[in-house]
Amino acid sequence: MNELKGENGQPSGKQTRPNWLTALCILTFIGSGMSNISFLMIYFSYEEALPLMKEFGSIVPGMELFASAGRNFFLTGFILYFLSLVGASLMWQLRKIGFHFYTASQIMLVLLPVVYIKGFPFPLLEASITAIFILFYSRFLKLMS
Question: CB of 140 within 8 A of CB of 91?
Answer without folding.
Answer: yes
